[in-house]
Amino acid sequence: MKAVLIKNANIVNEGKIVKGDVLVQDGRIAEISETISAKSSDTKVIDADGSYLMPGMIDDQVHFREPGLTHKADIESESKAAVAGGITSFIEMPNTIPQATTIELLEDKFDIAAKTSWANYSFMFGGTNDNIDEILKVDPQKVAGIKLFLGSSTGNMLVDNPKVLEEIFSKTKLLISAHCEDEATIKQNLEKYKAEYGEDIPMELHPIIRSEEACYISSSNAIKLAKKTGARLHVFHLSTEKETHLFSNNKPLAEKQITAEVCIHHLWFTDEDYKTKGSKIKWNPAVKTQNDRDGLLKALLDDRIDVIATDHAPHTLEEKNNKYLNAPSGGPLVQHALVALLELYHKGKITLEKIVEKFAHNPAILFQIKERGYIRKGYKADLVLVDLNSPWTVKKENLLYKCQWSPFEGTIFKSRVTHTLVNGVVVYENTKFANKSNPERLTFNR
């Protein structure tokens, strides 16, 4: 494997920015110093003067749609888009077809990723009302965790039996990640607006139907159950300011039993954007008010919210262009997540150090991912270089998603990813894919 020497970079790592060089050999970070000389003539040297070197981002929640939904996306296409966006590792969700609710079906997904992924990978095991025996077979050192849909499920993955929920929370040693929205509240709201509008429910009512109350009821109940049973609970994609007060910042992340995540779209869009974006910003949980967006950012900065993710969940434009009741929720985000966060940096809303903490360091801590998430000697060389002053416009021609649309189309980003290294290989360089990646299955220090 060819050595890579990154020279003169502004290294963003562990709360600091320092100028220096990083040498990569045999897939790992071999040396970090103020100045390093190439050890051999065939070392690839990247002059990063003026650019910022970060650990590769770790996205703890994506839907890459394979197997069974590959008309929307697949592991190869979406992981390639992720790498171009500076994401070098992902954790994918179980609601594919078939759903990853047995060990055998879970391993089928690992097999696909081993052959086609461009980024390092792991998968969530899916919980149901009747697969506790399979849940207890999962090896915590080889699988990211268990995903529970406590609302908004597909197939049979809504876990709504209280006795089953308590049994899962009590018995599993896995980290439990939960989608929290109260189905009864949503159903009641939906029926009200169906009675008023029939098939023509305005898209702007999405955050009223999938309301703050629905989110808060479900999140608070999950937290109560976690406290009762001692389970390790991670609440996915908070969308309301009210929910942020359910979480604390009174201890280091590694010591927390209950943690939370926020997604890019909830930090970027508000309910005002439904007028122009329509179903393209229809997610579950819904994009809500400016007060919610501001509250989520505040909680992220003061460490009540622990990580940033994308909840990348593509659908075809044909599917998204349906009326409210038939337009699926979700959208593509991995290619533009980091540059969107860097736009918030340019606006003075977040520091580079905090972006790296929440999108690289903390996912590694939270999931106990082995040897990733930091720029440290001996760690796997998952690295991303960004130019903070290289404006570009999101257009159909530069989209890498299989679905070929983005809620960011027309947006001008000031920053761009120039290089991405996965396990020491320069995979992406100056808008081109330079080499085939050599991704690895994530392993966990548990």
Question: What do you see in this structure?
Answer:
This protein has 446 residues and is α/β, with parallel strands linked by helices. The protein has a domain at 56-366: Alpha-Beta Barrel (TIM Barrel), CATH 3.20.20. 29% of the residues lie in helices and 22% in strands. It has helices at 75-84, 103-116, 132-135, 162-171, 183-197, 206-209, 212-229, 241-244, 264-268, 274-277, 290-301, 317-320, 337-346, 352-366; strands at residues 4-13, 16-25, 28-33, 44-47, 52-55, 57-62, 87-92, 120-126, 145-150, 176-180, 233-235, 258-263, 307-309, 383-387, 392-393, 412-413, 416-422, 425-429, 432-433. The strands form 3 sheets. Strands 1, 2, 3, 4, 5, 14, 17, 18 and 19 form a 9-stranded mixed beta sheet that branches. Strands 6-7-8-9-10-11-12-13 form an 8-stranded parallel beta sheet. The longest helix has 18 residues, at 212-229. 52% of the residues are buried. One of its GO terms (biological process) is purine nucleobase catabolic process. It is an enzyme of class 3 (hydrolase). Its EC number is 3.5.2.3.
In short:
With 446 residues, the protein is an alpha/beta fold. It has 14 helices and 19 strands.
Name its key features.
446 residues, alpha/beta, TIM Barrel, 9-stranded mixed β-sheet, 8-stranded parallel β-sheet
Radius of gyration, whole Å: 21 Å
Beta-strand percentage range: 15-25%
Task: Please tell me what the overall shape is.
Answer: globular
Low-confidence stretches: none
Q: What percentage of residues falls in helices of 4 or more residues? A: 25-40%
pLDDT averaged over residues: 96
* Number of beta-strand segments: 19
Broad CATH class of the domain at 56-366: Alpha Beta
CATH architecture of the domain at 56-366: Alpha-Beta Barrel
Task: Give the N-terminus to C-terminus distance in angstroms.
Answer: 30 Å
Question: Quick one: biggest sheet?
Answer: 9 strands, mixed
The CATH topology of the domain at 56-366 turns out to be TIM Barrel
CATH homologous superfamily identity of the domain at 56-366 = Metal-dependent hydrolases
Question: How many helical stretches?
Answer: 14
- Pairing-aware structural class of the strands and helices? alpha/beta
